[in-house]
Design brief:
The protein has about 325 residues and is an alpha/beta fold. It has helices at about 45-50, 80-85, 95-100, 105-115, 125-135, 155-165, 185-200, 210-215, 235-240, 245-250, 290-295, and strands at about 5-15, 15-30, 35-40, 60-70, 70, 90, 170-175, 205-210, 220-225, 230-235, 300-305, 305-310. Helix 7 links the parallel strand 7 and strand 8 (about 205-210). Bound molecules: adenosine-5'-diphosphate (ADP) and magnesium ion. Adenosine-5'-diphosphate binds near residues 14 and 274.
C-alpha cells in the first residue's frame, strides 16, 4: 500500500476549541491508483491534503494514523517531514500564483527544489532535468529563463505540475488543480495530469468540489461531508448507484445525471459547525431521509455491494 490513513483526526486548535476538520477518516491509496476526494467547500478536503504533508499551523492536533509506504507520518519530526515533502509526496495547489515564487526564474525555482533533496546536484544537471520535465508538461525548455508571472494561468499550473514531478514522488496530492482556470484549459490540464500519472506510475489524491472533474480519472471516489468520508466507491458505481443521500445531492448538481428518487432542488441548511458537530449523523439536519436514530447515533460504515456508506439507511443491506 502506498498510503494508508486509519481513524485519522486533524483538528485545528482555536480559542473556542478544536475544529474537527478531519474526523476519523480511513483511506487507502494503492500504487498507480487515483483517488478522488470530493465534497462541498469547507468539508475538510484541503485540511486532509495539507495534513498529509504536515504543513498546517504548528499547533494542529493529529490523531490516529497516516502512513506512507508503511512509515507513520504522525510521529515524524519536522526534519523528517522535509525529506518526505516533494520527494515522496508531491503537492499541486489550486492557485499557482501564490505558491510559485514570482520573483524567481523558473530555472532557479527548479534548482532550489532539486537541491533540497539532492544537495550534490549541479546547476547543469538541474537544468537538464528541468528541461525534460518542462517538455513533458508542454512548455518549451527555453522558457525556464522566465519568471512565473510571465506565464498565463494554465501555463503556470503546468509549471506547478512539472515542479511536483521533477522529484518523481510516489504520491501526488492535487488540490483543486484546475479550479481557477477556464473550462477549456481545465480540461487540458486534467488530460495532462491523467497522461503523466500513467507515465510516471504515480498514485494520486485528486481533491475537488466538482464531481464532474474526477469522473474520468479517479479509480475510486471518496465523498466527504463535514470532516468525514460518507461514501467510498469505485468510480462508475458512484455515478450509477450513489447510496448516501448527500452523494445523490452532489450528483444532482451535475448536468446529465438522473437521480430521480430525490425531490430536492436545493439542500436546506448549511454544513455543521465543525467546532461542535451534531451528535448523530452530521448530515441529519439536512437529510430528507432522516430517521430517529440519525439524530442520536453516529452512523456506522456499512458495506453495500462494493460501496462503503456511512448511513443508517443501510444498516440492513438494501437492494
Ligand atoms: N487555520 C484554521 N483554523 C481553524 N479552522 C480552520 C482553519 N483552516 C480551515 N479551517 C476550517 O476547517 C474546515 C475545513 O476546511 P478546508 O479543509 O479548507 O475545507 P475544503 O478544502 O473542503 O474547502 C472549515 O470549517 C474551515 O473553516
Ligand atoms: Mg480546499
Amino acid at each position: 500500500m502506498i498510503f494508508e490513513a486509519k481513524d485519522l483526526k486533524i483538528y485545528y486548535r482555536t480559542k473556542k476549541g478544536f475544529v474537527k476538520a478531519v474526523d476519523r477518516i480511513s483511506l487507502t491509496v494503492k500504487k498507480g491508483e487515483t483517488v478522488g476526494l470530493v465534497g462541498e467547500s469547507g468539508c475538510g478536503k484541503s485540511t486532509l491534503g495539507q495534513g498529509l504533508l504536515k504543513i498546517l499551523p504548528p499547533k494542529t492536533f493529529y490523531g490516529g494514523s497516516m502512513k506512507i509506504e508503511g512509515e507513520e507520518l504522525i510521529s515524524f519530526s519536522e526534519n523528517k517531514m522535509r525529506e518526505i515533502r516533494g520527494k515522496k509526496i508531491g503537492m499541486i495547489f489550486q492557485d499557482p500564483m501564490t505558491s510559485l515564487n514570482p520573483i524567481m526564474r523558473i530555472e532557479k525555482l527548479f534548482y532550489e527544489t532539486l537541491k533540497t533533496h539532492e544537495p550534490e546536484i549541479t546547476e547543469e544537471e538541474a537544468r537538464e532535468r528541468t528541461a525534460k520535465v518542462l517538455e513533458k508538461v508542454g512548455i518549451e525548455p527555453e522558457r525556464m529563463q522566465e519568471y512565473s508571472f510571465q506565464f498565463s494561468g494554465g501555463m503556470r499550473q503546468r509549471v506547478m505540475i512539472a515542479l511536483a514531478l521533477v522529484l518523481n514522488p510516489i504520491l501526488v496530492i492535487a488540490d483543486e488543480p484546475t479550479t481557477s482556470l477556464d473550462v477549456i484549459v481545465q480540461a487540458q490540464i486534467m488530460e495532462l495530469l491523467n497522461e503523466l500519472r500513467q507515465e510516471y506510475e504515480m498514485s494520486m489524491i485528486l481533491i475537488t468540489h466538482d464531481l464532474g472533474v474526477v469522473a474520468e480519472m479517479a479509480d475510486k471516489i471518496c465523498v466527504m461531508y463535514a470532516g468525514q468520508i460518507v461514501e467510498e466507491a469505485i468510480n462508475e458505481k458512484i455515478y450509477y448507484e450513489p447510496k448516501h443521500p448527500y452523494t445523490k445531492l452532489l450528483l444532482k448538481s451535475i448536468p446529465n445525471t438522473n437521480i430521480d428518487d430525490l425531490e430536492l432542488n436545493y439542500i436546506p441548511g448549511s454544513p455543521p459547525d465543525l467546532l461542535k458537530p451534531p451528535r448523530g449523523c452530521r448530515f441529519a439536519p439536512r437529510c430528507p431521509y432522516k430517521m430517529e436514530i440519525c439524530e442520536t447515533q453516529e452512523p456506522k460504515t456499512f458495506a453495500v455491494d462494493n460501496t462503503h456508506v456511512k448511513c443508517w439507511l443501510y444498516s440492513e443491506v438494501k437492494k
